[in-house]
Amino acid sequence: MHPAEALFDALLLLSMVVLAWQGVHARNMFRAVVSFMMFGLLTAVAWVRLEAPDIALAEAALGAGLTGALLLATLGRLKPERRGARLQRAAKLSMLPWLALGLAGTMTLLAVTLALPAPGLGERVLSAMPEAGVDSPVTAVLLNFRAWDTLLEIAVMLLAVIAIWSLGQDVLASTSRLPAPSLPALVRLLFPLLVLSTFYLLWRGGHGPGGAFPAGALLAAGLVLALLAGARVPERMTGAPLRCALAAGLLAFIIIAVGVMAEGGVFFAYPPRHAPMLIAIVEIAAGLSIGVMLTALFLGGEPTDTQGGST
Amino acid sequence: MSLPPGTLFLLASALLFAIGAHGLVTCRHLLRKVLALNVAMTGVFLLLVTLGRSGTTVDPVPHAMVLTGIVVALSTTAVALGLIVRLERRRP
Amino acid sequence: MSTIAGAILIVLGLLFFLSGTLGLLRFPDVFTRLHALSKADTLALGLVCAGLALHADDGTLQLKLLLIWLLVIVSGATCSSLIARAALAHGIRPWQR
Q1: What ipTM does the predicted assembly reach?
Q2: What is the DSSP letter of A302?
């Protein structure tokens, strides 16, 4: 490794650690949230340094963008932190020896782990790639080899949306809005671009970094931006169409997983002949569904029918 | 450099997890606890991907796991924030 | 030749980044800080992108760099205006000597 690269990594990781500490312990809650968003952005750079562009794309859109928007929206609805609600400095410092002990233990464990042989699954994935139906190893793992994990993950997201909807109605409508003419103009410019990039990433997922997760994240970023600019879920969309969009990914996944059993296969074992098409269907459905679900998470409740306006 | 590659990232991931766990225990405010949890999760993700790089080929399995993990982390955060807002409304 | 020109452009861009950051740290209130940051950083990014485009030997890559710069111009300007509006709405008066 070039010394300049090592220096860059060291600076990057040092700022990440400092920002993480500030993100948890900054005196002002707003400052904590903003530090955390910066931390998310730097994490995306760290993923690039670790040669994980798929994760970097998702992290930039989700970890920094959408999580930040969610946190700020929540912060606006909370009462200011009470004085004395935070632990005394002394109490906080008294935890530090335990922290150091835990850290030392973790580092020893890591040193031991590094000394062990680490074959990984890279070779096995590589040898199975001809039957995967796609050229990108990460997409192959996500939607073919370990599609079961992805199915459950989408189910978790859908459950999260249901949990939030069950808490009550959409709360975004009650937030005040600044008169800012430049934001809708920006959204009118960016929204089509973001939708275009969503489909570009979906297409690209077959042979390079991209795929359902970054694509869904970008779509959600566009939709949330539109919501922030004052767009509302159109009334005729709030019922069945929205629910269908939310469930589409999970449904497509289950139908295909069970469907390949009908052809005499095993649960989720795509016949190699049809694998490319099946994966494409799942990928598009999952990507769009993830985008809509992330937006629903941001809405923080079931969209009400009483709001005026449309997208 | 005599250090094995990725040592810095491993060190950072351990530190991040420690900061998150420490914050989770010592912070009173629930929003801070959520932030601490997110920091700890990032530490775990970094660890997974860094360990996946130690082999000869780049291992795509940790990448896929972390991708799903990020989305699950966001779902968890969203539910937690929703609960915090409702809780605050209930409490005087 | 174009490599050297590219390197000069990148270094120039970094100098503008530095001055923008200096303004962010030293200026008295949010409006003057935004003024320093948005202008200097937009120009700096343009210079860095131009320098990188001179280094790139691929037309698509140069087009992507141009696109990055244009998108950052648009979103940076909007963000600055939003932050300034939010500050005004929260009753922060512009700094006066």
Answers
A1: 0.92
A2: B
pLDDT in tens, A152-202: 889 999 999 988 888 876 655 545 556 667 788 888 888 888 899 888 888
Cβ contacts of C77 on chain A, cutoff 8 Å: 182
Domain B7-90: which CATH number of 3.30.460.10, 1.10.510.10, 3.40.50.720, 1.10.287.3510 = 1.10.287.3510
Q: CA distances (Å), A74 to each of A23, A33, A39, B89, in order?
A: 15, 10, 18, 12
Interface test with A, best of C30, C70, C82, C83 (most A CBs within 10 A): C82
- The domain spans of chain B are 7-90
Burial of C79 by CB count in 10 Å (0-12 exposed, 13-18 middle, 19+ buried)? Answer: middle
Contact across the interface for A180 and C77, Cβ inside 8 Å: no
Residues of chain B with Cβ-Cβ distance to A1 below 8 Å are: 1, 5
Q: pLDDT tens across B8-46, in order?
A: 888 898 889 888 988 888 888 889 999 999 999 999 999
Domain locations in chain A? Answer: 1-77, 132-311
Whole-structure pTM value: 0.86
SS3 assignment, position A118: coil
Q: Which chains touch B (3 or more CB pairs under 8 A)?
A: A
